[in-house]
Amino acid sequence: MKLTFLGTGAADWDINAYRQGEEFRRFSSALVNDDLLIDPGPHIFHFADRSGQPELLKNVKNIIVTHTHADHFCEETVRKLCVDGDAALWGDRACIHKLERVLGKDIAAKVDFRETALSLNGPADIGGYEIWSLRSNHQTEDISETTRLYLIRETCGSGGTGRMLYYGCDSAWIPTESWNVIKDKPVDAMVLELTCGTAAPNDWRIFEHNTLEMLELMLKTFRKYGYFSKDVKYYTSHMARTLHTGHAELAKTLEGLGVTPAYDGMVIDI
Ligand SMILES: [Zn+2]
Ligand SMILES: [Zn+2]
């Protein structure tokens, strides 16, 4: 299973400040193989164009949504992939409400939207993947929305390896009901969010995002009890521009914890 990071930043990055060749993070989004998109964010086509892969998203068949904050969910991106294209959109009902508000009911009705419930009784089959929708510790303006973490297992077709990915942007910690599903799974790659870095100790965002201290504590606990697969690898994403120093310094800090910070365009083989 291949994972391409299309964006690795939090909501404080400004796409207008992008300069080719300079360090930059777009809003967080990731592509599993070439057909499953995690979060239809506003910058994914910018990534495809600027990385010289204009066709990168043309095979996307399914889109899963973590939550409808504007850095993760862009109505115009959904229109391109689901109305002009034929991708299906999976997530909380808040997605369709937002599409109706912004694009209008007529265009929203053209989106193949599939509401997903939280997967406390098992995963949903979505286009060759088993996907667990799990609650994240986060909130949007729509208080009825269940914001989500995802566990994704590649199951079908030639790529049916059974390999498993955890994707957790955005969330502070992992809520108990989600942890009880994740902890016994043979997860091969964990993408943890790290909104707050060394520039933000004791930050108020600990109630909705992770800090470096929280990441360290979670990793120690994962390793102490031997959770996940034997060769599980750890990555971070969703780094805030104003709460971190540069990527090289972050990579050095995280090296000591056995974690790799993702960057835009990083591809991992899970
Ligand atoms: Zn975010
Ligand atoms: Zn958010």
Word description of this protein:
This protein is of the alpha/beta class. It has a single domain, classed as Ribonuclease Z/Hydroxyacylglutathione hydrolase-like (Metallo-beta-lactamase, Chain A, 4-Layer Sandwich). Helices cover 23% and strands 23% of the residues. The chain has helices at residues 44-50, 75-84, 94-103, 105-108, 176-182, 212-225, 247-255; strands spanning 2-7, 29-32, 36-38, 62-64, 88-91, 112-115, 124-126, 129-135, 148-154, 164-168, 189-193, 233-237, 259-261, 267-269. It has a 7-stranded mixed β-sheet, covered by helices on one side. Strands 7-8-9-10-11-12-13 form a 7-stranded mixed β-sheet. The longest helix has 14 residues, at 212-225. The protein starts with a strand and ends with a strand. The site of one zinc ion has 4 residues, from loops.
How do the helices and strands line up, and which of them pair or pack?
Blueprint: E1 2-7, E2 29-32, E3 36-38, H1 44-50, E4 62-64, H2 75-84, E5 88-91, H3 94-103, H4 105-108, E6 112-115, E7 124-126, E8 129-135, E9 148-154, E10 164-168, H5 176-182, E11 189-193, H6 212-225, E12 233-237, H7 247-255, E13 259-261, E14 267-269
Helix pairs in contact: 2-3
In short:
With 270 residues, the chain is α/β, with parallel strands linked by helices.
How confident is the prediction overall: mean pLDDT?
96
The termini sit apart by 5 Å
Helicity, as a percent range: 10-25%
Q: Indicate the overall shape.
A: globular
Order of helices and strands: EEEHEHEHHEEEEEHEHEHEE
User: Helix/strand/pairing class, anyone?
Assistant: alpha/beta
Rg calc: 17 Å
How many E strands?
14
**Which architecture name does CATH use?**
4-Layer Sandwich
Spans where pLDDT lies below 50 across 5 or more residues: none
Proportion of residues in β-strands:
15-25%
Treating each run of at least 4 consecutive H or I residues as one helix, how many helices? 7
- Ligand names: zinc ion
Main sheet: strands, sense, barrel: 7 strands, mixed
CATH topology title: Metallo-beta-lactamase, Chain A
Instruction: Please give the CATH class.
Output: Alpha Beta
CATH superfamily: Ribonuclease Z/Hydroxyacylglutathione hydrolase-like
The structural domain count equals: 1
Order of strands in the sheet with most strands: 6-5-4-3-2-1-14
